[in-house]
Amino acid sequence: MRTPGHQTLIHIAALTVCASLALAARAQEAQPATDATTETAAPNVLSTVVVSGSRISARGFTQPTPTTRMVAADLEKVAKPNLFDAIAELPALQGSTGRTTSTNSTSSGIQGLSSLSLRGLTPIRTLTLLDGQRVVGANVTGVTDVSQFPQLLIKQVDVVTGGASASYGSDAVGGVVNFVTDKRFTGFKANVEGGETNYHDDRNATLQAAWGNAFLDGRAHLSASVEYSREKGVPSPRFGGAGANGRTWFKNPAFQVRPIAQTNDGKPQYTFIENAQQFQYAKYGLITNGPLQGTAFGPGGTPFQFQYGSGGVPTGTGAVTGCVTPFCVGGDLSGTVGGGTTLGMNMTRQVFYTRGSYELSPDHEIFFTLNYGKVDSRFTPNPGAAKNANLTIQCDNPFLPASIVTACAANNITSFQYGTANAEFPKDIEVNPVRTQARVTVGANGRFDAFGKDWTYDAYATHGQNTIDINVANMTLNNRYTAAIDAIRGPNNTIICRNAAAAASGCVPLNIIGDVPIDPAAWAYIAPANGPHQHSRQRQSVASFSVNGEPFSLWAGPVALAFGAEARKEQYYVTGDPYGNGVSADTPNTAQYPADPVLTNPIGNHWYAGNYHNAAGSYNVKEGFIELNVPMFKSASLGEANLNIAGRHTKYSTSGNVDSWKVGSTWKTGVDGLRLRAVTSRDVRAPNLSELFAAPLVVNNTVNSNGTTLTVQQRTIGNTRLRPEIGRNTTLGLVLAQPKWAPGFSASIDYFDIKVNDVISSLSAQQEVDLCAAGNQEICAAMDLVSATKYVTLQAFNLASMHNKGFDLEGLYRFNLGSAGLPGSITLRALATHTNSFVTDSGVVGTIPSDAAGVNLGNTPRWKAQFSQSWETDAASFTVSQRWISDGVYSNEYIECQTSCPVSTVTHPTILNNQMKGAFYWDIGGSYKLNKNVTVYFKVDNLTDVAPAAAPQTGTGYGINPFLYDVLGRQYRVGARLQF
């Protein structure tokens, strides 16, 4: 196995390829003008260039906003079962979610959601479109699920790496990803693909078929596609810290964190460790405090002395000598749960898509699309249900061995603290998110004459609904668990639950002392078949109309104009099960979730995890936009330049009016092939449904105000007074596009600077009290610390800010081998993104801005790059590609030191080693055309089986970072494509 970060020669070789391409280039600029993206139009209907960075459509027009394009041939070479994975690998995409992310979460709501994120700004600040149209969200935050898109009919994907709110509206702060379908596909094609990892798991199969035909002398066209894909995932290895199916790289990484008060000894506060042992529980139970601390239980409940790591000895106070709470190093690791998280979800995709169009006249066409997409995911967030020294076992518990009862009496104790991984549970937690999208679009497009000029128009209306059901199986109810483990001897020497009310309502005693079989009746009591459940519906309705034309000309050329209007409504409804949302003995109940005297919390939260709550809300948007492309000059010596300007006015029913704009320019200089471009924009992200209408929740809490501790009601609720986030996105670029002295070669470099203010973020109750004391009147209005009923309202506020800057490189070089007497052609391509800094200021009193650039525990490495080298003939192709993530740090705020360390602080902790390795991956693939109709292909990803870098946590954690690293290992795929 090749270790990541230790492949210096490989790095140098791959970077030399990039340097040889004269830095890098924008792929779409590398195409000759005749290769510009066009729609194959019906007879006599105007063909226009589709530019995703703009709403202007005009032949020969070049936008100032950088755009990376992947055409169908590029996507075929990647040969992924899910198109999302191919796009997410692009360097500018950072922080995208997929089936390997969030698998340690039960309640996040984003599990199994394939959503794209540009610049690490999260998916909520990236606008993902289908044929330039919005798609209904698949989550309460409104982000789309790319897995629900039709994929076989996608002919290109444009990634606009610049602010595009003026052109497309809210959420395009980081940019736009536009999936463009082949609207005139004719014939039949299919794709069959299968594969697995070298660990013989994550077996996958994909079946896709598409058909299209023209009717009525070419005036009508109908196409359809159907897709089925199954990726079976990686099963949980359960307990013990061993990697799944022989993945030896997992070693229970963690941080040992000493108390700040102890860091005056010159030693660092943070230390990276492997084989971290949680000493607050054991696999089948551990006494964690008092005179019996260190007694663990094994088969049949037999007690034994627990083997602490680090040579630790229990102190009887809960601490262990030689260990730093909560970790020792080594020892008995059999109860470790971190490695038991699913690496890759079991995901099934089913998609149906159809598009029909009819030419009313040579200049006017109507169309419709129907899309159905269902994505079903399953995974295990963790085995068992660990209890970290937070259980109390009474010494009269009849499940205790006699020796422990005797030891209790000898030490004059009646109870002890206890921790367990609950490894004896018969089944692990299984989370099953199912997202089902139904979307219909109707529209018209065409051309008309007005004022002696030719104009085109595009209009559409769409309505979509995503139904999301999250079902959780094998989840325990905390209060029932607590009642069931507290057992006593009853009449006739039977074992019963101590709590009389619980016993009367069906409590069955549960033995958690050692490795013993679980009573099925006890399991049914603590983990009822009707587990946590969330049902939600996301709805979106959009009506849009736009016009394009060239109303007049200046001496340097025609002025292009686009304008239009759009109306949109977003709404959602979320329902949680009664045990999670709130049910008690006095509230209505159902047969599935009956009232229970031990489940008396009116706000719910009874489950170990997965407590979903009810919520609902909606808002509507009305907006209009205008965009102009104005030629400024055109001459043989100076070249030609244009000015591109756009403006959009938006009115939200919740936050009122907001404006966005864009000003940019492209200058094709008089120097052969050299082009300069610049664009700056004001972009917006409106608060989403979840931020506006979060489910209300009330719990008790304490805060400190002016030196006094107060008990308050903590009221969590959405904030309908939120304002849109405001972004300022500036890009400066240089492009060398196919100079005569180097035909087939293009390169570009673009500097980007993105500032986002009024960033929406949530705070703790104490943080809100501190901000109020500091003079923030908006937050003061969210609390009352004077009246008899004191409260603090937890809401999202426009407090934070973000500033991300760096540069993109892209290069492309194509040349034929015919001059060398060899068949075919060679294509070299390089893409890279370097993040100089990514500073976030939370706006919270007592905190400092943090820089996420190069933090490999996060989403934005210093460098993320792709390289590829392809050889192609009419019959065959072979591609070698590389993916690179640079070395980084755990945090830019850490101070690295080994000795003579300064005293650690909250904002600047000290750490022994602040280095986190990157990774370099090799992929290979090829294809061979058996005949004109059948092409076979293969693909191997992560050829050298590079392991992910350890991602240590400060508590029980995942141990890996799937947002940056390949966590599955080497993957093999083979397939065949049919075309008729």
Automatic annotation (TrEMBL):
This is TonB-dependent receptor domain-containing protein. It is a multi-pass membrane protein. The keyword Membrane applies. It holds the Pfam family Plug. It comes from the Bacteria. Residues 432-943 form the TonB-dependent receptor-like beta-barrel domain. Keywords: Cell outer membrane, Membrane, Receptor, Signal, TonB box, Transmembrane, Transmembrane beta strand, Transport. PROSITE patterns: TONB_DEPENDENT_REC_3. Belongs to the TonB-dependent receptor family. Residues 1-24 form the signal peptide. InterPro entries: Beta-barrel_TonB (IPR000531), Beta-barrel_TonB_sf (IPR036942), Plug_dom (IPR012910), Plug_dom_sf (IPR037066), TonB-dep_rcpt-like (IPR039426). It is found in: Cell outer membrane. Residues 63-176 form the TonB-dependent receptor plug domain.
